[in-house]
Amino acid sequence: MKEIREKARELMKGYCRVCPVCNGKLCVDEVPGMGGIGTAGSFQSNINSLAEIKLNMRVIHDFNDPQTSITILGRKLDIPVLAAPIGGVSFNMGGKVSEEDYINAVLAGCYESGTLGCTGDGVPEFIYEAAFSAITSLQGNGIPFIKPWEDEELFKKLELVVATGAKIVGIDIDAAGLITLKKMGRPVSAKSATKLQEIIKRFPLKFVLKGIMTPDAARLAVDTGASAIVISNHGGRVLDHTPGVAAILEETAGAVKGQIAILADGGVRTGGDILKMIALGADAVMIGRPFSVAAMGGLKEGVIKYIETLKTELKQTMVLTGCKNIESADSSLLYLPR
């Protein structure tokens, strides 16, 4: 991983510093780029809120090989981690790796490691074209995320998703405020629960709604008929001054637990972070920027190596907290000061 990170630092120079700790402090308001919007308060809140949560150490037990696999959205995953949707290599990461090579590395690395990668959407067209092509080549083993476009473009892209063979699709409802797209003649818009329900009923796909940050929004997502939500502030890239995902996860997940699959995306960097999020109520997590670094620095092999690292860290953390399998992870793993 050290070699992969050094290579990524070279290729991403001017766009990402590949800091020892990816915390948003040196990339404030670098959007495009890999930073957080405005003061980067939302990006940094993700990191800080997760760091504030501590784990209870329990080592009197009789297992040393905890089980990291889960089943979510009808798919068995070897580790409760998905690569979050990130696209736009040319303007976010420097463009020294092509969009096609980048997204193929993420998706193939995840698939060969027993999990799933997600793809991004945007303008220009080659972002989603590369994504759909990569998913097609993997017989539908990936999750494309689509921005909340106006009807004509949204429905066209969802039809293209069906053609890739994918069974799951995401909508970045947290991209609704991207005014830059409107200025480019490609407007996105907020969708009501009724409108989302209409969209979901129209296509033979499992829908994931990304951008849920409150219990009431989570309950509305259930009403739409979606199969999953992602509790996420879009990596701190769309709205400044939001709380960190870990700070609101327990309450938000608790409002809909058992009714819909719950993913959490925000500041996860290590196996310990994964277990914290699951103990707070997530079924699985998404990780964004570190997967980009792994793919830029090592392509598919970089992604595989990063997932191997996460799995090792997760197993170590589970052994040291007395957590035998992912299903048994709950708030008892967490230190809650009185």
Give structural notes.
The protein is α/β, with parallel strands linked by helices and 338 residues long. The protein has one domain: Aldolase class I (TIM Barrel, Alpha-Beta Barrel), CATH 3.20.20.70. It has twelve helices and twelve strands. The chain has helices at 2-11, 41-51, 89-92, 99-112, 126-137, 151-164, 179-183, 193-202, 215-224, 245-254, 271-279, 289-321; strands at 54-55, 70-72, 75-77, 81-83, 116-119, 143-146, 168-172, 206-212, 228-232, 261-265, 284-287, 334-335. The strands form three sheets. An eight-stranded parallel barrel has the order 4-5-6-7-8-9-10-11, surrounded by seven helices. Helix 10 links the parallel strand 9 (228-232) and strand 10. Helix 4 (99-112) runs parallel beside helix 5 and helix 11 (271-279) crosses helix 12. The termini are far apart. The mean pLDDT is 96.
In short, what is this structure?
With 338 residues, the protein is of the alpha/beta class. 42% of the residues lie in helices and 14% in strands.
